[in-house]
Amino acid sequence: MASDASTPAPPTSNISVRRGEPLVVVENVNKHYGDLHVLKDINTTVNRGEVVVVIGPSGSGKSTLCRAINRLETIDSGRISIDGKALPEEGKALAELRSDVGMVFQSFNLFAHKTVLENVTLGPIKVRGMKKAEAEAKAMALLDRVGVANQANKMPSQLSGGQQQRVAIARSLAMNPKVILMDEPTSALDPEMINEVLDVMVGLAQDGMTMIVVTHEMGFARKAADRVLFMADGAIVEEAEPEQFFTSPQSDRAKDFLSKIL
Ligand code: ADP
Ligand code: MG
């Protein structure tokens, strides 16, 4: 771990708040699926402590960009680095880097045959070599933070979608990620469960977590995002502060998109 004399004490042990310096740097990234150019010369920098909302029509490359950032997808050209380290191709370096990048998916992806508690302790024990008792204590604190500590010994299938997604967030926090990527984290939820997950996300943002969130939840963007990144056809078409983006989008693509979702 690089030490940094200017690092202020984080508000919780989980979150790094050396705000301002580049954490995720995406430079000239291109990707194709066969003939389809899905990421077109993507350039963006997410600074530490920054919350970026990625928005755009279906098929515009939002998920592919997220997956490229933690190397679930390869890229054809360009560079992506996390905290100054280029994304490695494979092996131990990749595993380490991936554990710095939390990922929360639309479909929760909890381990179905493990309890809620085990879902949260597994990574810290297996990947970080944490002692079971310590991992459990930490997991319980995180489950409490997302409001599901009383579900710790249940199986995921016994929980509501909103509860499962909050467990998934706790699981990703348990690895002390430097950044959390969330790909449409509330899209699979029944409407009455969306807010309980958004509230947790807003809390993380307020605590200084660096987040990249694909979502069309404007309330979250307005409350928590520093920047909205609008993608269409594989390119970043517009980048602006939420209020500015939602009230006066510049491009026809963004105007058209917003007219459909607002
Ligand atoms: P979004 O998340 O914005 O809806 P995606 O990143 O999922 O968009 O997809 C971007 C484009 O790439 C879409 O046209 C999609 O059909 C295509 N695509 C995504 N994944 C694959 C894949 N594994 N193979 C081929 N095409 C893909
Ligand atoms: Mg997607």
TrEMBL record:
| CDD domains, per the entry | ABC_HisP_GlnQ (cd03262)
Question: What do the Gene Ontology cellular component annotations say?
Answer: plasma membrane
> Its membrane topology, per UniProt?
Peripheral membrane protein
Q: What is its EC number?
A: 7.4.2.1
User: Which protein are we looking at?
Assistant: ABC-type polar-amino-acid transporter
Q: Identify the residues that the record assigns to the ABC transporter domain, covering every copy.
A: 24-258
| Keywords of this entry | Amino-acid transport, ATP-binding, Cell membrane, Membrane, Nucleotide-binding, Transport
Q: Which InterPro entries match?
A: AAA+_ATPase, ABC_ATPase_HisP-typ, ABC_transporter-like_ATP-bd, ABC_transporter-like_CS, MetN_ABC_transporter-like, P-loop_NTPase
Q: Which PROSITE patterns match?
A: ABC_TRANSPORTER_1, ABC_TRANSPORTER_2
Q: What is its main location?
A: membrane
A GO molecular function term, named singly, is: ATP hydrolysis activity
> Lineage of the source organism?
Bacteria, Bacillati, Actinomycetota, Actinomycetes, Micrococcales
Family membership noted in the UniProt record: Belongs to the ABC transporter superfamily.
